[in-house]
Write a structure and sequence with these properties.
Strand content: under 5%
Strand order of the largest sheet: 1-4
Radius of gyration: 21 Å
Distance between the termini: 26 Å
Largest sheet: 2 strands, antiparallel
Shape: globular
Helix content: over 70%
Order of helices and strands: HHHHHHHEHEEHHHHEHHH
Number of strands: 4
Amino acid sequence: MTATAADERVAGVGPLRRLLIRPELGAVVGLVVVFAFFASQSAVFRSPDGIANWLDPAATLGIMAVAIALLMIGGEFDLSAGVLTGTTGLILVTLATRYGVNVWLAMLAGLVVALAIGYANGLIVTRTKLPSFIVTLGTFLMLQGVNLGVTKALTGTVQVSGLRRASGFESARVLFAGTIEIGGTSFRVAILWWILVTAVATWVLMRSRPGNWIFAVGGDEQAARAVGVPAARTKIALFMTTAFAAWLVGSILALRYTSVQANIGIGQEFIYIIAAVIGGCLLTGGYGSAIGASIGAVIFGMADKGIVFLGWDADWFKFFLGAMLLLATLANRLVRRYAEEVKR
């Protein structure tokens, strides 16, 4: 009697195939190529000081990109994430400088407002079934108006400053906007926050039940509901996670520069989405990784500073963004097709 074919549900998948279907594979290849190019052209780029220089913008971008990646895996978008970083920063600086509130309490107030906005976004999306693109675009416009209107009404300008003189500033600055020495080179503390956020997000996605829920609601929300996944609560939590990341980045930037402009963060929401896409997230949801989004942020940081180190016109950075978005989208499509073939 001939041996029966192995059940496909228990058939083994080789290590090479497991590697090839990883969502962050394309981002890793892009990271190696971009680093090799700039490192070969600039000694400063590959020096410890140069690495610290391009890891700095990658850190704040990475924190947001990871949160946006989780939301995209869950099948939604948040176009208000960029301007919300400005809102939380303005709340912090305004309360601390104009009303004498301790910096830590002002940060807590900013966090409460951010989480409330994230909750509202998620609630509206889940209750009305409107596209999150439309809902968060409306939030983006409202926050932009509030940021500009309130700041001008209080200061007569579009900027609030003077945070350095506020009580509690030094302790908050050390924790969120300070530096650490590694081998004689100063690195921003924001890098540690970025690593922590990436590690927690990766654990949630790969090792927890909520991670399964995120993939499920992003892949097929109706099917997820049918098997008992709390789809609405999961999506609301994802919007609140994005809002938390916006508060963290807004606080870091406010404490670093001790002032905030009313238009800060506007336009950055697209950068966050692009970084997540480069990292392997699909626009259709249900696929991606937090590590990939972080790698996408590193690629952006390297290109941003690498172009400066080489003395190129900064306008080429926009060309780079567009090229990376197209290449990453094509690569993700090919990887997704291969992944589907492996499952058959």
